[in-house]
Specification:
Methane Monooxygenase Hydroxylase, Chain G, domain 1, mainly alpha, 23 helices, single chain
Length: 573
């Protein structure tokens, strides 16, 4: 074989694989857009029972054809406190079951003699869907459904291209590969490693599934080694998750470790019973050890897919009873940070440097990051009472330093989340996603303004201390009550940020009304006190500045809830 022939074969393989991967991406994005925000509703309703999490994980992954996407949403919900770590582990288990759908699609429609028939059916289906859903439909949902069907059609075309691009290997090459299968149990371990490495290189388990089924259908590898490659593929997907989790917080790392623990345990279980399981699958599917038998080669894809399903479903059923133990293991592997270490350092917990496949998933990450932003702002606000009660300058300066540090953090978080949302909005997004992006930009702008106002209150307290301005008990009590009212408004805001679809606007307005009403009372009393000379100008100026700043802070708080409610109403229209 000449060098030009080798180059031609490699180019054909690369092109066929590119079509396959593009089809998977197109189908996955279409499904995710079609499902839209309903994906997070499914996760939000997961109960503490493992079965509900497993079913949700399997269903969502089967629908969107991406276990990574499912894991991202799980991390967001767990970090927001809407999903326990045990529930997250259950969803990750279910996600593994959902990935078997791709293997069944390939095995039933994309490998063997049926591939050509599938392509002849998919091409007119492709053209019909293109004209119907993209040219005539004005509804986004129908367009997304059309994109999904087009992706499925291209997937079948990609499989046909891959099958036709596979070269006819020489007998020497086939015999060389076959010799790797003659080392007994060591061969099984070798092919597990090969499967893991190839999955890491391809960066997608779907493409690796296609490669395994093609290799088996061409008679290159024996059936037991194909099963070992499937086991290695499951391990390879976990390493990708570990790399992604490196930039996430504790919850993300634990979810990734749970995925690793689950798949490693599944591989160890199958290794112990490897040959009985292998013989059972062969008996069930009618497969024999003769790799040269054409009829036998046609049965390989279905048999391998049966094992793939058995591996994921079987290990899930067994390990579902050990979810509490898995939780303890991952908590031991990724311990919680103690104290406030890292609390006063800037970091993004949920947003990744690279965008995920669809706007819906990116917005879920942004929503979780905004909830973290709100948590920082609320914590910053709790430092203010310490400025009044500080016993000495050293304690006062330490609190001021913390507030200043948090003010820097809020500025950077607002900037980074804005850049992320702008990047998401510059892509292909639905009208609903575009509205959600606008809402989030308004929210983070007001959260940053809350941080600025808290800092202004702290600076006013500092100026008051430096100028030796002292309030009497009555003024301190009034400001303390104003502070409590603002705290109640902040708590309502924070609750609303956790569920955009059920915003409690009445509670938000009630808190805002109390703040404004009390501000009006203080202002009237303040003007009377100035007329009667109850306190001098310096005290009055500091006092009026503080209650005005608290009221201003309340305005930013109500703006957040109003932005959420506006987005909800727009989505309903």
């Amino acid at each position: 074989m000449e060098i030009t022939d080798i180059v031609f074969i490699l180019l054909n393989l690369a092109g066929a694989l590119a079509v396959f991967l593009f089809a998977m991406k197109l189908m996955s994005e279409g499904l995710q857009k079609f499902a839209g925000s309903k994906l997070r509703h499914v996760l939000s309703r997961i109960t503490g029972k493992p079965l509900s999490g497993i079913l949700a994980g399997a269903g969502i992954t089967a629908a969107i054809q991406s276990s990574t996407a499912t894991t991202v949403m799980v991390v967001g919900f767990a970090g927001a406190g809407l999903l326990t770590l045990g529930g997250a582990v259950a969803v990750v288990m279910g996600a593994n079951i959902g990935t078997t759908i791709t293997a069944w699609i390939i095995a039933l429609f994309g490998i063997g003699n049926g591939a050509s028939d599938a392509v002849s059916f998919s091409l007119p289906m492709f053209l019909g869907t293109l004209s119907l859903f993209f040219m005539f439909s004005k509804k986004n949902k129908m367009q997304y459904l059309g994109q999904t069907i087009i992706g499925l059609c291209l997937l079948l075309v990609g499989m046909e291209l891959l099958e036709s691009a596979i070269p006819q290997l020489s007998d020497e090459v086939v015999e060389t590969i076959a010799t790797w299968s003659h080392w007994g149990f060591w061969s099984v371990l070798l092919f597990i490693v090969v499967g893991a490495v190839l999955t890491i290189i391809l960066q997608t388990s779907a493409a690796m599934t296609a490669v395994i089924l093609l290799m088996a259908s061409q008679g290159w590898i024996e059936f037991p080694m194909a099963l070992a490659l499937v086991m290695g593929q499951n391990l390879g997907t976990t390493l990708t998750a570990q790399v992604v989790a490196m930039t996430t917080g504790t919850t993300g790392k634990r979810a990734a470790r749970a995925h690793l623990v689950f798949n490693v345990a599944g591989v160890l279980f199958c290794l112990i019973l490897f040959y009985p399981i292998c013989n059972g699958i062969m008996a069930l599917s009618g497969v024999t050890a003769d790799t040269a038998d054409p009829l036998n080669q046609q049965r390989y894809p279905l048999a391998i897919t049966i094992f793939h399903t058995f591996f994921n479903v079987g290990t899930t059923i067994i390990l579902a009873f050990f979810i509490p133990q898995i939780v303890k293991i991952v908590e031991w592997m990724v311990p919680e940070k103690k104290g406030d270490e890292g609390e006063e350092e800037f970091r993004l917990t949920y947003i990744e440097p690279n965008l995920l496949s669809t706007a819906e998933l990116n917005l879920q990450s942004a929503k979780s990051e905004i909830e973290e932003f709100s948590k920082r702002v609320l914590r910053m606000y709790t430092f203010l009472p310490g400025l009044r009660t500080a016993k000495d300058d050293e304690e006062f300066d330490a609190i001021m330093a913390r507030i200043a540090k948090y003010e820097e953090i809020t500025d950077r978080m607002e900037m980074e989340i804005s850049k992320f949302l702008t990047k998401v909005g510059s892509g292909d997004v639905s009208e609903h996603a575009s509205e959600r992006i606008s809402t989030m930009l308004r929210i983070i702008d007001n959260l940053e303004s809350i941080g600025d106002t808290v800092y202004q209150i702290a600076m006013t307290r500092q100026s008051k201390r430096e100028d030796a301005v002292h309030f009497d008990a009555g003024l301190n009590a009034n400001l303390a009550h104003m502070s409590e009212l603002v705290q109640q408004a902040l708590d309502v805001m924070d609750r609303n940020l956790h569920d955009y679809d059920h915003v409690d606007l009445d509670a938000a307005y009630a808190a805002e009304h109390e703040i404004n009403g009390f501000r009006d009372r203080l202002r009237a009393q303040h003007l009377d006190a100035l007329k009667l000379g109850v306190y001098d100008y310096a005290i009055g100026n500091a006092y009026s500045s503080l209650y005005a700043l608290y009221e201003k802070l309340g305005d930013y708080v109500i703006n957040v809830s109003e932005a959420i409610d506006s987005s909800r109403k727009h989505a309903e229209d």
